[in-house]
Write a structure and sequence with these properties.
With 494 residues, this protein is α+β, with helices and mostly antiparallel strands. It folds into 2 domains: 81-150; 156-494, no CATH class. Helix content is 38%, strand content 8%. It has helices at residues 11-39, 85-96, 117-125, 129-150, 155-169, 182-185, 200-213, 260-264, 273-292, 310-316, 358-365, 367-371, 397-404, 417-421, 430-440, 446-458; strands spanning 218-223, 232-234, 238-240, 250-256, 297-300, 321-322, 328-329, 338-344, 386-387, 390-391. β6 and β7 (328-329) form a beta hairpin. The protein is globular. The chain starts with 10 loop residues before the first helix and ends in a 36-residue tail after the last helix. Bound molecules: iron/sulfur cluster (SF4) (2 copies). Residues 323-325, 335, 361-362, 365-368, 421-424 line the site of one iron/sulfur cluster.
Length: 494
């Protein structure tokens, strides 16, 4: 064999060069993949929501040493409060700007010897540190003046940061309860004119992106229709009859799932509060973000801080359809979909409802009705009843609540069997994703019937009454609890 210059190539050369080429190609591939994955946020460690620690992947065992890697070289003493810069700066600020509005006890014109005891001791033993504080303080004054110049450039970054910061400064719950009518409370904290968006579409794309960074799994935009707004009670006002406030133009509807394995282990290794607490944070942060841009905002959050019924709002926002169990079913999360919303006057482009076959599937399925320990879910073949002018499935709320108070738990109460057993509530592995996709495009219903038969054959269900404590039931769970929620795995029990 000869190359283009005529030089002879033997077998060893061929292996050598092809090996080098292969290595180069591999390295190139790795580098390329690394470059591409580095540009994809989904591959950034820490951004996934892995309840099982999958992101902490580094094998530490191989690097374990039996000594600390910090070095002890002398007598050890504990750190003092003033060695933390934010603590000593806080002390100085309180002297300069007393909270009770009295005259300053220290000013920048004064020196170390004018400070009270421990502060004076600290700065005397750290020469230069007080000078640095004075420099930083003056720079901060200048920074405030410069902010006018930079404000627009960093507007979104500032609003995003403020939203994340807000939960840290609350004295009570976050988001805080509205105080006063929406015309006041929804505008509280706004310090700027509303920034003009390029278009409602820009507004929707921006707010969806931001909601995802706050932790929302699904986001949709709905108009606020008055028929979904509760009547008779308005948060911030109390018992009252009222019309929909005109500035409730749109609702940003956000959804997240419960932790999947604890949900499947209902009742009652699950809780509603894992999703609720996160939804409060997401909606509360969206409120701060919107207000920072000059728009009115009011979060509607679980468990009970809503002025609007969530399922129809989420349907209008295109997130999913309502199932036989009365709960929203989304293509991505099934019935494991928990909701919150933020009403706003920001100009936004609205989403459209989706119809991916839930009504027809529910007509045939009825698993939730069979499994419900209270009999609150209808198993009727006939179409659902008309409620407040709309034909829809509704559960017997009173019977359901009795079961919350019957199953073997004290707090958080609840059942959630209907969410767990719903065939749509399957983790999003490729089989289930394929099944959902194919079903959504099959107008004949043949595929869903086949899937339903498989579902009922492959999955075993304890049956309604079994979820109850003895003597009527056996404290059954739908699926085994995850190991991390089994008390006996961690504690000595009698
Ligand atoms: S939460 Fe439990 S009792 Fe209530 S409707 Fe669902 S399955 Fe039935
Ligand atoms: S369990 Fe079946 S009937 Fe019940 S909501 Fe889910 S799909 Fe519909």
């Amino acid at each position: 064999m000869a190359d283009r210059s005529g030089k002879k190539f033997n077998r060893r050369d061929f292996i050598k060069y092809s090996g080098l080429a292969g290595a180069a190609l591999s390295l190139g591939g790795i580098a390329g993949a690394g470059y591409l994955s580095g540009r994809n946020k989904a591959t950034h460690t820490g951004w996934g929501r892995d309840a099982y620690g999958g992101n902490q992947y580094f094998n530490r065992a191989a690097f374990r040493v039996h000594r600390p890697t910090y070095q002890k070289v002398g007598p050890v003493r504990r750190i003092t409060y003033l060695e933390n810069i934010f603590n000593r700066n806080g002390e100085l600020y309180r002297l300069m700007f007393p909270r009770d509005g009295s005259s300053p006890q220290w000013t920048l014109k004064q020196g170390v010897s004018d400070l009270p005891g421990p502060l004076r001791d600290y700065y005397q033993s750290h020469p230069g540190s007080l000078q640095e504080f004075k420099k930083a303080f003056r720079r901060g004054q200048q920074q405030k003046k410069n902010w006018k110049k930079y404000k627009t450039r960093y507007l979104l970054a500032s609003a995003w940061s403020a939203a994340h910061e807000s939960p840290l400064h609350g004295k009570g719950a976050f988001p805080s309860e509205p105080e006063g009518p929406p015309e006041e409370s929804d505008f509280k904290g706004i310090t700027t004119e509303a920034y003009s968006l390029k278009s409602p579409g820009h507004g929707s794309r921006l707010i969806k992106k931001i909601a995802h960074t706050f932790g929302a799994t699904l986001v949709g935009i709905a108009p606020v229709r008055e028929q979904w707004v509760y009547q008779g009670y308005l948060r911030g006002v109390g018992k009252t009859q009222f019309n929909k406030p005109p500035h409730w133009k749109h609702a940003v509807v956000v959804a997240i799932p419960h932790e999947w394995d604890s949900l499947y282990a209902n009742p009652v290794y699950g809780t509603s509060y894992d999703a609720y607490s996160m939804l409060n944070f997401i909606a509360g942060k969206l409120e701060v973000f919107l207000k920072h841009l000059g728009y009115a905002a009011r979060p509607h959050v679980p468990p009970t801080d809503y002025d609007i019924a969530m399922p129809p709002l989420a349907i209008d926002a295109g997130l999913g359809e309502q199932g036989r169990h009365g709960i929203l079913i989304t293509p991505e999360l099934g019935a494991n979909t928990r909701l919150a919303a933020v009403t706003t006057n920001m100009p936004l482009e609205e989403d459209h409802p989706i119809d991916f076959g839930v009504a027809e599937f529910c007509r045939k399925c009825k698993i939730c009705a069979d499994q419900c320990p209270s009999g609150a879910i209808s198993s009727a073949e006939k179409p659902p009843d008309v409620i407040r002018g709309y034909r829809r499935w509704a559960i017997n709320q009173d019977k359901c609540f009795t079961i919350w108070n019957t199953v073997a738990t004290q707090h958080p109460r609840g059942c959630r069997v209907c969410l767990a057993v719903c065939p749509y509530s399957r983790k999003n592995n490729w089989v289930h994703r394929l099944a959902k996709d194919v079903d959504a495009y099959d107008p004949t219903g043949t595929f869903s019937s086949a899937m339903l038969t498989m579902q009922k054959s492959f999955f075993s269900y304890p049956g309604g009454a079994q979820y109850l404590p003895p003597p009527n039931g056996t404290n059954a769970v739908y699926q085994k609890p995850p190991q991390w929620l089994k008390t006996e795995e961690w504690f000595n029990l009698d």
